[in-house]
Every structure is written in C-alpha cells, then in structure tokens.
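SEQUENCE, STRUCTURE TOKENS:
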Amino acid sequence: MVLLREIRERGYEGGLTQLKAYLAAFKRQEPEPENRYETAPGRQMQADFTHIRRGRDPLIAFVATLGYSRSSAVRFSDNERSDALCEGLCEAFYRFGGVPREVLFDNASTVVVERDAYGEGHHRWHRRLLALAEQFGFTPRLCRPYRARTKGKVERFNGYLKRSFCVPLAASLKQAGLCLDVQAANAYVGRWLSEVADERIHGTTGERPAVRLVADHAALLPLPAPKANGLILPARGAYPVPVESLQHPLSVYNALLEVRP
C-alpha cells in the first residue's frame, strides 16, 4: 500500500489489482527444468488415463507407453475404475508380447491406497493392481505427487492420440451419422496403432517406434500362462483391430489411415 501511495503521488490513477497485473509481466519466470529420463529396452512402461470426452457419455482412454521404443497400447472405456485399469494393462502386455520390469503410474486410488504406508517408498497398493503385478511379474512404481512430467512419455502420447486418432475418427463417424463411442474407438484403434502411431518418426528418438519395439520385445519378461484366479485375460493376439459392423462400417475408417501426423 505504501508503494501504491507513492506511485499515485507521481500521477498513477489505477487500482492495486491493475498495478499487480502490470508488474507481474516483469517478474522473471524460471521454467521448470525438463529432465528426460531414458530407460533401457524392456525396463519401463508408463500408464495413464486420459479423458477424450466428459459429461453424461464419457470416453476415456487407458494408455500404456513403453519407455524405450515409445510404442503404445490403448484401450477405451467409460470409466477409470480398477477393472478398466487391469484390463488395459493386460491388453498392453499382450500387444507388446511381454511384460516390462516396472510400470510407472500416477497416484490414483485405483493404483495406491496409501503412499509411504510402510515407510518412504513402500506403499500400500490397491489389491487388484498388486494381484496383477504378482501374476505378470512387474514392479509397480509411483511418480512423484503433483509431478505429472515424471511420466512425460505417456503424457505426450495422450495429446497425439487425441489429435491424430480421436478427432479425425469422430469427424468421419459424424459424417456417417455415427458417434465415436467406446465400441468404435476400441474397434479402430488397433490398426491405427500399428499402421500410423508405430510408423511415425518420433520427435524425441528420431526413429519409428516399430523399429525400436524389436529391442523392447526382446528384453520384455515372458507372458504368464492364464490362471483361473478371477482375472479376465485376453487371448493371445486378441488386441482389438478394426472390424466391419452395421453400426461402424470399416469403410468409414479407411480414410483415416491416410492421415499422417
């Protein structure tokens, strides 16, 4: 207030809020450093949910990205419950043909019940996730709270998924009088991942994810045999691919594959 009085004595006629807004532009903004953490083949997979559409008819994508190759797996649903998480992880492992040694998550309640419950770095995991980790042999990891950039590889793919797949597919379906729903998204995303996403030149690695996926696949842990423990596992090779149906004709999707990032 003393500063404001002094400025007004010199002819300033505005208010305090206006003054603060003006001075804020001169404050030095230190950008948060972005440290790229590269992992060896087969070492890490980053997993996350991203909202495609909110509201009464939500569309949510579970995305899993291998740290080395940047190859990704996607499963759409209408929720973020533990079933959607576990089914997404299973399909990712089967798409990649193996299991990474660790999977990095955020701090969602479907992942961790209590962080540092048994000491620093020793968390109380959600029982469904823990059972899946024991069955497939991966170690769950948590990113630091309020630091989404820790899993920046999957975060960056989320934006690419929306721009390159969801938006053009929704537009194509709309022209045919159809809506982009969970069924359509899951039916079409498999081919897009293989023919578009994995074949693009990645901005960070400078290589196609499909090429680097060879090294990732060779280093992944083997898939376990399905067990009758209540977990629904997809059959080998059952990752969704485009299928022709009366509701979502394959011809609608053909044009989408001509779109390149």
The first strand starts at residue 44 and ends at 53. The beta strands are 44-53, 59-66, 72-77, 102-105, 112-114, 124-125, 139-142.
